[in-house]
């Protein structure tokens, strides 16, 4: 997340991290492949503009609000969506696409890990607020920009906290799996003679089995 503002505009700063959470039980994939897949989903929604995406985006805003994500005000975000639709339709569909992809990721994650899903939802809520402040920043006065910058710094600081919690969960999973591998390796070392005998027995049985 080198360029945090750019990430919030084009896709959402937490998408790549959340994808790692969603795919924690799957074979590892290069991060750039995950990012390309998510960008492709966003671009398809922006181009095709399906009505169901609008409903999903609005539903996700309500889900975020139900998680008591301060200072998230769903009424303000919904009014902002309506304003974008009326006055900046391209920006509206970019926002809808990001929310829709994020909602789908949370729905996939909650089936596997409700704790991670709640953290990811909080992270995406912070990004919604950050994108809103970013839009306000463009036409703000210098005094207003100073205040908006402070608000953005607070949001991104919270974002880092949530990221760190997610990474902590991932580290704990890795450490648990590593402990299991080490235990199994030690078991095989301790029972090496038995494993060799069983393997040889299997080979001999197969060799003497009638053709």
Description:
With 211 residues, this protein is mainly alpha-helical. It has one domain (4-208). It contains 9 helices and no strands. It has helices at residues 4-10, 15-22, 31-48, 51-66, 74-87, 89-110, 114-138, 142-190, 192-208. Helix 2 (15-22) packs parallel to helix 6 (89-110). The protein is elongated.
Which structural traits does this protein have?
mainly alpha, 0% strand, elongated, 83% helix, 211 residues
Question: What portion of the residues fall into strands of 2 or more residues?
Answer: under 5%
Radius of gyration: 24 Å
| Secondary-structure element string | HHHHHHHHH
Helix-residue proportion: over 70%
Count of extended strands: 0
Shape: elongated
Overall pLDDT score? 86
Characterize the largest beta sheet: strand count, sense, and whether it forms a barrel. Answer: none
Report the total helices. 9
Structural class estimated from helices and strands:
mainly alpha
Which oligomeric form is depicted?
Answer: single chain
End-to-end distance: 62 Å
Q: pLDDT below 50 for ≥5 consecutive residues: which ranges?
A: 1-11
Overall tally of structural domains: 1
């Amino acid at each position: 997340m080198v360029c945090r503002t750019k990430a919030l505009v084009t896709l959402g700063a937490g998408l790549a991290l959340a994808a790692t959470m969603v795919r924690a039980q799957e074979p590892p994939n290069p991060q750039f492949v995950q990012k390309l897949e998510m960008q492709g989903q966003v671009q398809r929604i922006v181009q095709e503009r399906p009505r169901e995406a609008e409903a999903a985006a609005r539903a996700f805003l309500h889900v975020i609000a139900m998680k008591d994500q301060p200072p998230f005000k769903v009424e303000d975000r919904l009014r902002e969506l309506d304003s974008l639709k009326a006055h900046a339709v391209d920006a509206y569909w970019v926002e809808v696409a990001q929310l829709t992809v994020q909602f789908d990721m949370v729905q996939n994650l909650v089936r596997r890990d409700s704790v991670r899903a709640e953290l990811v939802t909080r992270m995406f809520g912070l990004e919604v607020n950050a994108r809103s402040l970013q839009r306000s920043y463009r036409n703000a006065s210098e005094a207003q920009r100073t205040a908006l910058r402070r608000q953005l710094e607070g949001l991104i600081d919270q974002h880092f906290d949530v990221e760190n919690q997610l990474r902590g969960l991932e580290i704990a999973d890795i450490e648990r799996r590593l402990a299991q591998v080490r235990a199994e390796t030690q078991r095989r070392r301790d029972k090496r003679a038995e494993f060799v005998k069983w393997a040889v027995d299997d080979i001999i049985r197969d060799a003497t089995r009638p053709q």
